[in-house]
Amino acid sequence: MCGIVGYIGDRDAYPILVKGLRRLEYRGYDSAGVALVNGSGTLSVYKTKGKVDDLENYCAEKDVSGQVGIAHTRWATHGEPSSRNAHPHYSESKNLAIIHNGIIENYADLKKKLQQKGIPFRSDTDTEVLVQFVEYVQQKKSLDLLTAVQLVLHEVIGAYAIAIVDKRTPDTIIAARKQSPLVVGIGEDEFFLGSDASPIIEYTSRVVYLEDGNIAVMKRGKELQVVNIYNTKLPHEVKTVDISLGQIEKGGYPHFMLKEIFEQPECLTNCMRGRINVEADNVTLSAVIDYKKQLLAARRVIIVACGTSWHAGLIGKQMIENLCRIPVEVEYASEFRYRNPVVGAGDVVIAISQSGETADTLAAVNLSKERGAFIYGICNAIGSSIPRATDTGSYIHVGPEIGVASTKAFTGQVTVLAMLALAIGKERGTVARAEYEKIVKELVSMPAKIEEVLTVNDRVKDLSRTFTYARNFIYLGRGYNYPVALEGALKLKEISYIHAEGYPAAEMKHGPIALIDSDMPVVVIATHNAMYEKVLNNIQEIKARKGRVIALVSKGDETICQIADECIELPDTIECLEPLIASIPLQLLAYHTAVCKGKNVDQPRNLAKSVTVE
To answer: Over the stretch 198-217, which tens digit does the pLDDT of each residue have?
Structure first.
């Protein structure tokens, strides 16, 4: 959730740290801070509630010199958002400073023991317990920083990514991770640290993704050292990050979200590149080739995911069942991991996560793996925790998604699920060759059709002004478009703060119809597919109760356009691929409504891009 940045080298640390925090703003946060060690051995901590701009204003008259530093954006877990609870946290002597992502589950017990020893606390956070504990161990046993950190981590229960500095050893940063991401960038006689690679890529493309249980020792002018809590030296692989600086900048758009909506044609082209042949009649996924036995023998598929990824999973369920004839269950990872699920050998678990760091999804992966299931990951962030924990999988290759409300990751996930269903269905012989080739060809045409859909942007922008007043929305869809209705409602909730709910259109009569009146906008996905007549009847029922209908219809539809208040036409496509097209106007509707309401589209309140804590 929170963002970590660190630097040690010969440059001024403060500008690098602040720029890095800005790169991580998409993760969601409520306060920000920096700790700097200068040449005279002074450790200065500056922090404040609010945004990085507030931190910069606070630091304007402060001494921000130093070539070693750590910085943090906090998303509150323990303790309200405040300057007092913001990171970094000092130790009692102010010799040490720490930043931390994650949750220390046994912090209350540790804090009580430290308080009994006379150690005072300045904050309400679980994080401060770590730095006070490290200092206590250091002083009691006359230990160096690394050894003290190792001993403390023996006692810690929970998830963490930490970075800690000691003004008495100003040439060192110690970082450690467990179930929370941390990346070390390697430059020329300098090191960079980040929750992900975005704060690092401006300076180096060479990175080390720390594994669970890794402790990184970064010393000025020395080689990177990676050990564990037992001080065993661990091997580490230096990888090259394939992300450009332009991918994490707005490129002339007012918001990352709008940029990412308009990137989708190119993103889906990249997603399919090398996986669909030039004749557009065959899908090849290396994971299916390499693990054909496990995938084809699956007695059941279980999809685990959260939020938008869960909606993509609902679409994937229908694709896999229709094309592969394998039963599929779709589970919220947060529920799956806690209810002692029946899962084991013969099951294929598909874990979907944009960031690859979603804590509940990662826990579901580990549980399923322990019980003998075969794990397939679908992620965007290369080198993240879930791809490293799975048996195999596919990256969606849509580039960094900075906007908190997912757009291109959703369509990328659906595209990969379609290719996976096609590849397995072909190998199992459960999809006719003619149908297979028809879907493959149509999938290849999706980028062009999305380009066509994006031309409705100005129309949706005007439309959104009409409905900015609304306090509630209902979204309806059937079949493959029911998950699209759920996703459209989620997008509106996330960034405009308008309450919205998605339903299967036929379920409207089982309760939600009681809400319909002249003040209730209803978005209906009513494309010309097998459910068309049924959805048409639903629209007529809404209009009979004076509801206001915004309908997504197939191009040339005259029937619904005569009934609905507003119609947005979509190009025709195969029913199973309609979500790729129908989701675009709903993304635009949420975006423009939020902009009209003056909301912070890229950083909606209370939300974080990567949910790395429970």
So the answer is: 889 889 989 999 988 999 99
Assess whether 51 carries a catalytic annotation. Answer: no
User: Average pLDDT of 260-285?
Assistant: 92
| Dihedral sign for Cα atoms in the order 37, 41, 45, 46 | negative
324 is catalytic: no
- Identify the CATH number of the domain in which residue 123 sits: 3.60.20.10
**Residues 115-129, mean pLDDT to the nearest whole number:** 92
- Domain match, 438 and 554 both: no
| DSSP per-residue codes, 138-174 | HHHHT--HHHHHHHHHHH--EEEEEEEEETTSTTEEE
Task: Choose, from 2, 267, 567, 576, the residue flagged as catalytic.
Answer: 2
- The residue range of the domain holding 418 is 250-444
The three-class DSSP label of residue 122 is: coil
Contact 477, 524 (CB under 8 A): yes
Nearest to 390 by CA among 378, 406, 408: 378
| 236 and 255 share one domain | no
Is 614's pLDDT higher than 60?
A: no
Look at the chain and count its residues.
Answer: 614
Kindly state whether residues 426 and 292 are assigned to the same domain: yes
Q: Which of 47, 111, 493, 609 is catalytic?
A: 609
**Same domain, residue pair 232 and 255:** no
| CA-wise closest residue to 2 among 23, 22, 28 | 28
Query: Cα(405)–Cα(26) distance, rounded to whole angstroms?
Result: 10
* Residue position matching structure tokens 């430059």: 187
**Residue 97 to residues 35, 105, 131, 196, 383, Cα–Cα distance (Å):** 7, 21, 7, 21, 28
Q: For the whole model, what pTM was predicted?
A: 0.76
Instruction: State how far the alpha carbon of 404 is from the alpha carbons of 116, 252, 271, 386, 591, in Å.
Output: 42, 19, 21, 19, 12
Verify that 255 and 233 share a domain, yes or no.
no
Q: What is the pLDDT of residues 165-194, one digit of tens each?
A: 999 999 999 999 988 889 999 999 999 999
